[in-house]
């Protein structure tokens, strides 16, 4: 019988069952935003962005618990691949950790070690709060964390692409996550060019050849649909701030007559 923690590991369970990982990027440190957006339904993960979002480690606990309460897995992206950052995010209840800029297999091995308790890894022990986002006791969390918390690295550089087959083969690594914008800049090629798309396809193949989940950042639902059709297992569909700005821009345009609104029932 699966542990309670396994049952609460929403994204890991979905991926293991062959389902797609559908999520979005959280950049605003507000549990109310989490509850409003995740409450729509259909999401099994939310990325809590501690790298580029207006979020830092003091927000990780509250946001992780809010995401989990809304029925999805909180995935925390730490600002940099540093052991203390990974530890802090895990101890706040993250269901998975994403580290940016993985350039080599050695980078990936370090990240895996930081995510696992001894003797497998080097994670310090102190999970007083970590189980809250799983709804389990400290003891159950400690017993199951190594197997239930996802380890993700971002491949978003030319060096990372050059080493992607070796990275994908690292034991204990669960997800290779493509950062397409940084990848384009690192390769010094236009976004969406043949060189760019070939690199993304190489990452996808390396992940699947090594039994890993292939994931990618997408800016909208159309991109996400295309990437799923390409074979990716896990996609984001948008960012919270992107949805807010787009929605407000559209409504402002309708109000000022600059955007043509489609006819609808409206108000009487």
Automatic annotation (TrEMBL):
Q: Which PANTHER family match?
A: 2-KETO-3-DEOXY-L-RHAMNONATE ALDOLASE (PTHR30502), PHOSPHOENOLPYRUVATE CARBOXYLASE FAMILY PROTEIN (PTHR30502:SF0)
Quote the SUPFAM superfamilies the UniProt record gives. Phosphoenolpyruvate/pyruvate domain
Q: Which organism is it from?
A: Trichosporon asahii var. asahii (strain CBS 8904) (Yeast)
Q: Which UniProt keywords apply?
A: Lyase, Metal-binding
GO cellular component term, pick one:
cytoplasm
Tree of life domain: Eukaryota
Question: Where would you find the membrane-spanning parts of this chain?
Answer: none
What's the name of the protein?
HpcH/HpaI aldolase/citrate lyase domain-containing protein
């Amino acid at each position: 019988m699966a542990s309670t923690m396994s049952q609460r590991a929403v994204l890991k369970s979905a991926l293991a069952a062959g389902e797609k990982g559908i999520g979005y990027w959280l950049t605003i440190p507000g549990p109310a935003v989490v509850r409003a957006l995740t409450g729509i339904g259909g999401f099994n993960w939310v990325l809590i962005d501690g790298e580029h979002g207006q979020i830092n480690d003091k927000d990780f606990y509250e946001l992780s618990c809010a995401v989990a309460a809304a029925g999805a897995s909180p995935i925390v992206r730490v600002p940099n691949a540093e052991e203390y950052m990974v530890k802090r995010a895990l101890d706040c209840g993250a269901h998975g950790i994403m580290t940016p800029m993985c350039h080599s297999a050695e980078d990936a091995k370090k990240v895996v070690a930081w995510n696992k308790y001894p003797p497998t890894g080097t994670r310090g022990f102190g999970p007083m709060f970590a189980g809250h986002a799983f709804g389990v006791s400290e003891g159950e969390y400690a017993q199951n964390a190594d197997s239930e918390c996802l380890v993700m690295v971002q491949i978003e550089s030319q060096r990372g692409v050059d080493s992607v087959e070796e990275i994908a083969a690292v034991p204990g690594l669960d997800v290779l996550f493509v950062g397409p914008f940084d990848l384009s800049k690192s390769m010094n090629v236009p976004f969406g060019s043949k060189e760019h798309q070939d690199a993304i396809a190489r990452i996808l193949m390396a992940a699947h050849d090594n039994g890993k989940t292939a994931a990618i950042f997408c800016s909208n639902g159309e991109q996400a649909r295309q990437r799923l059709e390409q074979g990716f297992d896990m996609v984001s569909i948008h960012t919270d701030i992107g949805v807010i700005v787009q929605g407000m821009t559209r409504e402002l345009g309708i109000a000022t007559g600059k955007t043509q609104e489609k006819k609808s029932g409206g108000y009487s």
